[in-house]
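Quick one, tokens below. Sequence please?
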């Protein structure tokens, strides 16, 4: 297991780990041991040169136009390694979130959202302005791949889909050491801005309620949440999950019963003396 250290590059103040010996396959195995995830954890990486993305082993390039949600789904649901440029995406909304299109006046106006997701142009423009996105101008391509494959070596961020019960245990593991209250927002539609957009832009763990498009086009299940976070957080999460499991705080969360005396159940984890 990687040695834990406080990283100056980590704006959240939470403890992160050195990535010099990061092993994605081992991390995924341990996540599955403690959380029984049903969806493949994946990595996402941005590239300044398209040729770097195209050089990834066994990379797939889309033959059709997609949403980013679909590209992410191809990795998380199908286990594929896929690379894209802005030309592969259906429009500016997707590309802007990952820094492949500018926050242009047209994009900021929200004109495509007006009357569809928001009643007025003013509401649509407020939505666009509220989205967390990667600054434009540095990157030309993006790739996603199952974290266990090691092909992104390492990725910029990791995406983990989980049920609410799995997700709270994962967050408990994250907070086991270096505690900090985690706070997120909900932009509404285009909530990929709340997950991979925010995590790529800030380097902070970012939780989202996947939006209509993610569920319609990306294969996200009705009961799934998504957390995006840099890989440096994952070793400390595993340490936290192991410690919590020893205290009887693990997934699946065993139902104790709404009518039973709570003291007996709590005695497994707490000192009730």
């Amino acid at each position: 297991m990687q040695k834990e250290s406080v990283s100056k590059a980590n704006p959240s103040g939470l403890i992160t780990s050195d990535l010099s010996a990061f092993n994605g396959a081992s991390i995924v195995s341990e996540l599955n041991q403690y959380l029984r995830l049903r969806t493949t954890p994946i990595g996402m990486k941005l590239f300044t040169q398209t040729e770097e993305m195209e050089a990834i082993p066994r990379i797939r390039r889309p033959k059709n136009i997609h949403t980013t949600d679909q590209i992410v789904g191809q990795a998380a649901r199908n286990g594929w390694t896929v690379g894209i440029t802005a030309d592969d995406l259906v429009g500016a909304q997707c590309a802007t979130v990952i820094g492949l299109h500018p926050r242009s006046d047209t994009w900021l106006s929200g004109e495509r959202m007006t009357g569809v997701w928001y009643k007025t142009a003013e509401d649509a423009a407020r939505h666009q302005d509220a989205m967390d996105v990667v600054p434009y101008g540095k990157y030309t391509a993006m790739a996603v791949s199952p974290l266990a494959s090691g092909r992104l070596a390492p990725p910029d961020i990791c995406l983990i889909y989980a049920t609410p019960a799995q997700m709270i245990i994962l967050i408990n593991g994250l907070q086991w050491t270096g505690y900090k209250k985690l706070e997120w927002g909900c932009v509404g539609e285009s909530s990929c801005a709340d997950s991979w957009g925010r995590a790529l832009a800030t380097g902070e763990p970012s939780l989202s309620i996947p939006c209509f498009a993610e569920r319609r086009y990306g294969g996200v299940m009705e009961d799934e949440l998504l957390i995006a976070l840099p890989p440096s957080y994952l070793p400390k999460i595993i340490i936290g999950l192991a410690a919590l499991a020893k205290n009887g705080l693990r997934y699946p969360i065993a139902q104790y019963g709404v009518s039973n005396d709570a003291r007996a159940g709590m005695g497994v984890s707490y000192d009730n003396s």
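The first strand starts at residue 4 and ends at 5. Confidence is low (pLDDT under 50) at residues 1-9.
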